[in-house]
Amino acid sequence: MFGEVLLHCVSTESEIQQNSEQLEGHVCLLQALRVVQRLTRDKCSPLFSMIDSLWPPPVDPKSHDDLLQSPSDRVPPPCFCYRLSVQLGHMVPLSGQTESPLYRPPVLQTLREILQDESSRCHCSFRATVVHKELLSSNAGEREMLLFVTDPSLQREPNTDGNRRTVAVCLSPSCLIQSSVTQALDALQTQPVLMFRDAVKENAQIFCWEQTVIQLEPEDSSFSIPRPIILDHLGPETLTYSLCTVTGVVVAVDESTAFSWPTCSSCESCRLETREHQKGFLCLECGAVMDEPTTKMELEVFLSCSSLSHCTVKIKLQQKTITSLLNSTSCTEGYSVENVLGSEIGPLSVFVHVVNRSHTVWMGLEECDLH
């Protein structure tokens, strides 16, 4: 029988790490145990995906003899398990016990190996470099995090097997993220390397649930990836929530999205006011005084791409690309649609947030900076 143990009164990350090292893989004595819930596959599919990855056990749980069963003799995996609760200090590893023969440590795979697995659903553990982050809103109002990751196996040239250059990893709101990982993701200029243990690959996508462990890895020169990051080219088969590169010619401008606004040249805040009886502007956020604020702009354009015939491509541009585009048109103030049309932009790194194939192919892109 399998069970999931909720260990209470573990408050700090150091306590979590310490308890994991003491308990993982060892036979433990559980005292003052409380049954919290009976779980079934329908109620908790991520947990049962982990159970399936451990089934059948390599040895008999009672005798520890090897289980030499033919495929026809194997007992099907359990259809239910119990969620148990125990207080800290009431789950004690038995003294003198070495690693249990039932324990299966995670086996690290490359992302290429994981993508080549033809199983519709499987557990996986891997190391990967995070190159981009997106926050998505779910139907329940919670925020899911989408991490785009890669590793040396996907960045090698040439890409002869058609695998993607980057993979999207979805972190559910229930996934526990350590503060060290959060800090590394907030400073993505460093492109941190993370270890993902017990993630779930389902229908060519990777998900992290509450059973997944994510850790920040130290720098390792043997795990380096080339710079700049190699991305897939935008094509007719590109999927939603992908990273790719695009080059195209501007054929239209969505003028309803085109606007500009002044910001502080120091902190980029919009809270500016003119100074009374003096020239210049005052930032109400940081107190900086400036002669002229920095102008921020937003612009969305439609592209014609040679690799995409009969396809509508709309892209939201970043500030530096807008500035470069307008400078190339010799516009001294604002912009002229006629001058922007026909300009070639790219290659740009983009996040594909919408793909609609109901009638003709329509793609919504947003430029991103991968540093």
From TrEMBL:
Question: Which cellular component appears as one GO term in the record?
Answer: nuclear chromosome
Which part of the chain is the DUF4503 domain?
A: 1-370
Extract one GO BP annotation from the record: regulation of establishment of protein localization to chromosome
Against InterPro entries, the record matches this protein to:
DNA_repair-scaffolding (IPR053054), DUF4503 (IPR028032)
Top-rank taxon, per record: Eukaryota
Pfam families cross-referenced by the UniProt entry: DUF4503 (PF14951)
UniProt cross-references to PANTHER family, sorted A to Z: DNA REPAIR-SCAFFOLDING PROTEIN (PTHR34347:SF1), DNA REPAIR-SCAFFOLDING PROTEIN SPIDR (PTHR34347)
What protein name is recorded for this chain? DNA repair-scaffolding protein-like
